[in-house]
Amino acid sequence: MKRRRAWARRARLRPDGEDRPGPTSPHCPNTPIRTPSGIGFLSARQICSPPVTDLIVTLDGPAGTGKSTVSKEVASRLGLPRLDTGAFYRAAGLAAMRASVDLADHEAVANVVAGISLDQDEGTMLLDGLDVSQEIRSQAVTEASSLVSTHPEVRGLLVVYQREWVARHDNRAVVEGRDIGSVVFPDATVKVYLDARPEVRAQRRADQTGKEQGGVLAELSARDARDSTRQASPLVVPDGAVVIDTSDMTVGEVVDTIVGMAREQGG
């Protein structure tokens, strides 16, 4: 694996619950992350309320709505960097797997995540400075990331990494995920929620993976239920977001719509 420079700092949390500097943003440089257990979780707004952004375009929505494809095209058209926040959760899941901890143990997983460094460099996902972009796409990691992403402590840590990344890019970026406009960047310039009919989403994923549509539909339904009911940062339509149903739209049509929205805001 190719070693690259990892910019993100490690989160350091003492077992006795004392605060140590964890990952911070230039806009909240000394924000500690602390709980009585020492794991480290505050709500996203408590960790650091981000400033009004220059040009942040957020794309939220469930799987199979076209977020990744659309976000890449929107970023290219606007000349902005793109952040795939889902890759952070996949990398966190991979790290927990490598540490052989119980993925259902929120404290154990959070301690693992607090001891690693995560970053993205032009689409390459870095875990402790190593390129794990291919490894995190395995089925095992997909399942692990789905579980660890339900832990509030983990989400709290990764939100800080994500805000740091955008701050390093001058608060100008296209960011995709499932809680971006609602939690990570609630004051984003343009907030979009992509949706599509369940059968359309399932067919898209089936075409990508080679699986049967029926099985994919069941998987997506289970994931939707888990994402929308989790305690921390559930999947919701962010306040002020424009909902775009991509079921009967081409990628180009969706991209044109979002790019138009961004340019109206001076992008």
Chart the SSEs and their pairings.
Elements: H1 44-47, E1 55-60, H2 67-78, E2 82-84, H3 85-98, H4 106-114, E3 118-121, E4 124-127, E5 130-131, H5 139-148, H6 152-168, E6 172-177, H7 180-184, E7 190-195, H8 198-209, H9 213-229, E8 242-245, H10 251-264
Parallel strand pairs: 1-6, 1-7, 2-6, 7-8
Antiparallel strand pairs: 3-4, 4-5
Describe the protein in words.
With 267 residues, the chain is α/β, with parallel strands linked by helices. Helices cover 43% and strands 13% of the residues. The chain has ten helices and eight strands. A five-stranded parallel sheet has the order 2-6-1-7-8, with helices on both faces. A three-stranded antiparallel sheet has the order 3-4-5, covered by helices on one side. Helix 2 crosses helix 10 (251-264) and helix 4 runs parallel beside helix 6 (152-168). It is globular. The relative contact order is 0.20.
Describe the structure using short key phrases.
three-stranded antiparallel sheet, disordered N terminus, five-stranded parallel sheet, alpha/beta, 10 helices, Rossmann fold, 267 residues, single chain
